[in-house]
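Sample entry follows:

:::
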Amino acid sequence: MQIQDVFSLSFDALIDRKVRTVLTVMMVVLGSSLVVVLNGLSAGQAEFLEQQFNTLAANLLFAQLRSSTRIILARLVPRLS
């Protein structure tokens, strides 16, 4: 079978099954588009999260008391220093 025969048979099959051909082309285009869009969205989300984490000021430590009064036992005082 010659290469020309292969292309001729392929083209004839595409002409005979028009709906199948159109659906196949549409799904290839749609699938490729979705891959590109999802890749862009995930890259954008990663960049956004990185910016948010950078604005958290991770080098700062905040300490807050839960209540204004604490009872400390005398035997625990040496462990606090």
